[in-house]
Amino acid sequence: xxxxxxxxxxxxxxxxxxxxxxxxxxxxxxxxxxxxxxxxxxxxxxxxxxxxxxxxxxxxxxxxxxxxxxxxxxxxxxxxxxxxxxxxxxxxxxxxxxxxxxxxxxxxxxxxxxxxxxxxxxxxxxxxxxxxxxxxxxxxxxxxxxxxxxxxxxxxxxxxxxxxxxxxxxxxxxxxxxxxxxxxxxxxxxxxxxxxxxxxxxxxxxxxxxxxxxxxxxxxxxxxxxxxxxxxxxxxxxxxxxxxxxxxxxxxxxxxxxxxxxxxxxxxxxxxxxxxxxxxxxxxxxxxxxxxxxxxxxxxxxxxxxxxxxxxxxxxxxxxxxxxxxxxxxxxxxxxxxxxxxxxxxxxxxxxxxxxxxxxxxxxxxxxxxxxxxxxxxxxxxxxxxxxxxxxxx
Length: 394
Description:
By secondary structure, the protein is mainly alpha-helical. It has helices at about 5-25, 30-40, 50-55, 55-75, 75-110, 110-120, 125-135, 140-170, 180-210, 215-235, 240-255, 255-270, 270-285, 290-320, 325-330, 340-350, 360-385. The chain has one domain: Na+/H+ antiporter like fold, CATH 1.20.1530.
């Protein structure tokens, strides 16, 4: 079928699915995902895997928009007030998640390399579903701000943890030749540093341009151009796409506050169809046939990751003396897992493919559990902001 016809089908059915789930008191994003599952290879097969790969540009574009919006919400005043607490919670929940998954998988399999790899991949949190739910329910408050910062920064931390864990895994299976501290740190740190520099430079340029513009359509065009350039360059140089566009948003929001508001309002006006297309296509990627294959190992991974995120966020909030709502509910909003974890699983395939079944097991577990996490994630976000009393405050 013609690709434009299919995108039209995606948008129409996605909106209908979102409305139906809304009536059932679920976030609309769950409806988008379910529509995608039905359209994907698992059910009706409207979208074949090769066609989904060709539409990857939509996914990258949407992730760029989502990360830019996260960054635009992180104003300096808020970061200054919450910065120490956010960093503490970020590190504690990431380390707790890594330790619990690693220990749980090791108890079950006694395979140290597999345990370390799955532990590091479980740290990553997908920002997309989180942002869409927060916007759908107009959430605003300390929990919402802390959540946006953590899901934006979490992926960068996951890259660093994976760098160390993969080196330890390589040592444990005897493939340590050529592995050094420099080689372990080089890849994640270059991706992160490059993303930050790219986001700052393009953010300064976009702020300067938007500051001198007053026409809303012109501002929208420049803003989209800046996000697309940032997304494209991040892909070209293998930088972290999410981190680069988030830093772009942070820079625009904090350089000239008026520019930040103008770009945010302009981008916000076109986000709904982009979100719908992104999540329907994400749902189409989810293969239900993988769920039975994850077995007991997948269940251990899901439970350990859930306890790590919820318990770690609560502990981090307690240590940093954050308010009670963050201690009780923030962790429930950190359950989403998608793009970064799957991307790292593909890197595992490349780096560990010659070491038996480790890579195949990793990809199967991450892909199968992503189906569960992508449904649980938005539900957890809604639960957290509802309990914290932040729905409708934006």
